[in-house]
Amino acid sequence: MAQLKVLKFGGSSLKTGESMRQVAEIIAAEKEKKAVVLSAVTGVTEMLVQFISRTRSEEDVDAFIKDITRLHIDLIKDALRTEKGQAKAMEELVAKLVKLERMLYGSCYIEEVNPRIRDYVQCFGERLSVIMLAALLNEMGAKARPVDADELGIITDGLYGTATVNMEATRSNIRPKLMKMLQDEVTPVITGFFGRAPEGSVTVFGRNGSDYSAAAVANAMGASSLEIWKDVDGFMSVDPKIVPSARPIPRLSYDEAAELAYFGAKVVHPMTMEPARSGNIEIRVKNVFRPEAPGTAIGGTGNVDKS
């Protein structure tokens, strides 16, 4: 098979219909075989985390489901141009939200929020975002399919809240499924942020863990490269909010990028480096709103110039 590229998009690039269309255009313009990994729309995971932080009433659940449904339906109407495409996406969205609603009602009845429930609820932002982007790609004529990570078979160590990927089990699960889709000229649009524990429950990788998901998919598929699309030009020499003249760092080693991530640079999740390193996969961090900018390349020998 031809070389494969994995493209990961963050939530800030999905927050309006216009930005979602820009993401879809970047994907459609990519000539290599590709798999896409998505975050939730900006703010949605925080909504879910806040809601599940304590027990709620049935009335609370009703209002919350109404709010999160409206947010995503408004995005669908803004991004998709055809009534047929909008209707299909809304139908899939509502079916997914029914599962969330049932879990939230169940939590009300037992008056308990345990780690298993918390992780299950937190991952719904990604489950909804992949439906919307896949629908938009299909409307644009680029065949795509939304794929949930737990159903695909991304296997974790089972630790709630801060899980890690079991690469061996994940590779044997997801590689044949994704290869079949790619051979059929279908682009898989995969949920980031979570996987499936060995006994079947959902476990999340921690906040901003979709970068790590993308690196795990890239490793499992033997990808040639991983592009992580953000709303910044890459790793910056200093905080641009403090120093307006900050500029992107053109290249980092895996160790250098991991160190910057662990010590506060929130550009890429620090756990992203290990699957990329073990698969010898170059990462490139790029700006979805400035796709012509080179961004930061990560891999091999670094070339840090922070001056």
Secondary-structure blueprint of this entry?
Blueprint: E1 4-9, H1 17-29, E2 33-38, H2 44-51, H3 58-79, H4 83-110, H5 115-122, H6 124-139, E3 144-147, H7 149-152, H8 167-183, E4 187-191, E5 194-196, E6 202-204, H9 210-221, E7 225-230, E8 251-252, H10 254-262, H11 273-278, E9 282-287, E10 296-298
Parallel strand pairs: 1-2, 1-7, 2-4, 3-4, 7-9, 8-10
Antiparallel strand pairs: 5-6, 9-10
Structural class: alpha/beta
**How many β strands by DSSP?**
10
CATH A-level architecture: 3-Layer(aba) Sandwich
What would you call the quaternary organization?
single chain
Helical run tally: 11
Q: How far apart lie the N and C ends?
A: 42 Å
Largest sheet data: 8 strands, mixed
CATH class: Alpha Beta
Radius of gyration: 19 Å
CATH topology: Carbamate kinase
- Low-confidence parts lasting 5 or more residues at pLDDT below 50? none
CATH superfamily: Acetylglutamate kinase-like
Mean pLDDT: 94
* Order of SSEs: EHEHHHHHEHHEEEHEEHHEE
* Cross-sheet strand order for the largest sheet: 3-4-2-1-7-9-10-8
Beta-strand percentage? 5-15%
Helical fraction equals 40-55%
Outline: globular
